[in-house]
Design goal:
The structure holds two protein chains of two kinds. In chain A, about 35% of the residues lie in helices and about 25% in strands. Chain A contains six helices and nine strands, in the order E-H-E-H-E-H-E-H-E-E-E-H-E-E-H. A seven-stranded mixed beta sheet of chain A has the order 3-2-4-1-5-8-9. Chain A has a two-stranded antiparallel ribbon with strand order 6-7. In chain B, helix 3 (about 65-75) links the parallel strand 3 and strand 4 (about 80-85). Chain B has a single domain (about 1-125), classed as Phosphotransferase system, mannose-type IIA component (Rossmann fold, 3-Layer(aba) Sandwich), CATH 3.40.50. The N and C termini of chain B lie far apart (about 45 Å). Helix content of chain B is about 40%, strand content about 20%. The chains are: A alpha/beta, B alpha/beta. At the A-B interface, helix 2 of A face helix 3 of B.
Chain lengths: ~160, ~130
C-alpha cells in the first residue's frame, strides 16, 4: 500500500528518515525523480539518509508510477517522495490516490509563501487546483504529529 | 585552509561562539545556519566561499543523513574540500588549533578518531 506520498524539495532527509518512516511503519521509501535517477553522485548522497531497516529505492517517474500501481495491491507500507508538483500531477493522473502531503517547498522565482515551509509558484497553484478538483486532499505537515493544514483553505477554494 | 560549519538551525553559530569562548578568535570560520527564515541557500553560500578563495575547505556538518550535509556535498562536488559529518566540539577544537600546513587527510582522520573517543557515558547512580 502507498502509506504516504510526500512532496519535499529536500527529498529524503533526517526529518523524513527519523519521523515519518517510524510513525507510518514504512518498509520502503521510494524517491521518484527523473533527475536523481540518472545521477550516481546524488544517489550516493541520498543513500546516506537511508534509515536503518528501511529499503530505499530511487526510480524515474515512469517507473515510479508502475511501481506504485503494483504496490497499491500489497500490504507492504511504502512512502513515496517527490520534489515538485509537475511530477505530482503525472502521478495523480495515472493513479487513484487520496492524499498528497506537503513537506518543504522552498521559495523560487515567482513563488509566494503560503506556509512557513511551503512556497508556491503560479504554476504550482494551478496544479494544486487541478488536484483539488480531482478530490485529492492536499495537506501540509512537516512532521507526522503536526495537525494538517489544508491547501484548499489557504487557496480559499 | 578555510573552516566552515554548516548545520540545521543555529548550531553552527552556537558552535562558533563556543569555540571563540574556549580558544579565542585565532581561526576564522564561516558559519552557515541553514533553513532559518533569513537563511540564504546553502548551495549559494558555499559556492560564494569557494569562488572567492583558492584555499582548501574543511567543512563540518551536523548530521550525515541530513539535507544540510547533502547540499554541502552537492555544492562541493569535485572541489578541493574535506567534509566531516557529525562533528563534535573536541574534533573542531583540535583541528582549529593546528597550523594549516599540518592539516592533511591523515591528520583529519586522526582528529575524528580522537573526537569520537571523547564521547563518554556515565551512570551517576553507580559512581
Amino acid at each position: 500500500m502507498i502509506s504516504v506520498i510526500r512532496i519535499d524539495d529536500r527529498l529524503l532527509h533526517g526529518q523524513v528518515a527519523l519521523l515519518w518512516t517510524q510513525t507510518y511503519s514504512i518498509h520502503t521509501v521510494v524517491i521518484v525523480n527523473d533527475k536523481v535517477v540518472n545521477d550516481e553522485f546524488l544517489k550516493m548522497t541520498l543513500g546516506l539518509a537511508k534509515p536503518i531497516g528501511v529499503e530505499l529505492k530511487i526510480i524515474s517517474v515512469a517507473d515510479g508510477i508502475a511501481y506504485m500501481r503494483e504496490q497499491m495491491e500489497t500490504t507492504r507500507r511504502v512512502m513515496v517522495i517527490i520534489n515538485n508538483l509537475l511530477d505530482a500531477k503525472r502521478i495523480f493522473d495515472e493513479l487513484d490516490l487520496p492524499s498528497l502531503n506537503f513537506g518543504n517547498l522552498r521559495e523560487r522565482a515567482d513563488s509566494a509563501r503560503y506556509a512557513p515551509a511551503i512556497s508556491l509558484t503560479s504554476e504550482d497553484i494551478e496544479i494544486c487546483k487541478y488536484l483539488l478538483d480531482k478530490g485529492v486532499e492536499l495537506e501540509i505537515r512537516r512532521t507526522p504529529d503536526e495537525s494538517k493544514t489544508l491547501i484548499k483553505k489557504l487557496l480559499n477554494k | 585552509m578555510i573552516f566552515i560549519i554548516a548545520t540545521h538551525g543555529s548550531m553552527a553559530s552556537g558552535t562558533f561562539d563556543t569555540i571563540n569562548f574556549i580558544i579565542g578568535d585565532r581561526r576564522k570560520f564561516f558559519v552557515v545556519d541553514c533553513y532559518k527564515p533569513e537563511s540564504e541557500s546553502i548551495e549559494q553560500t558555499i559556492t560564494d566561499i569557494v569562488e572567492n578563495s583558492d584555499e582548501k575547505l574543511l567543512v563540518f556538518t551536523d548530521i550525515c543523513y541530513g539535507s544540510v550535509n547533502r547540499e554541502v556535498m552537492t555544492a562541493l562536488r569535485g572541489k578541493d574540500a574535506y567534509i566531516i559529518t557529525d562533528f563534535n566540539l573536541s574534533m573542531i577544537l583540535e583541528l582549529a588549533l593546528m597550523n594549516d600546513d599540518d592539516i592533511n587527510e591523515d591528520i583529519i582522520k586522526e582528529c575524528i578518531e580522537n573526537g569520537k573517543k571523547q564521547v563518554h557515558f556515565f551512570n551517576m547512580k553507580e559512581l
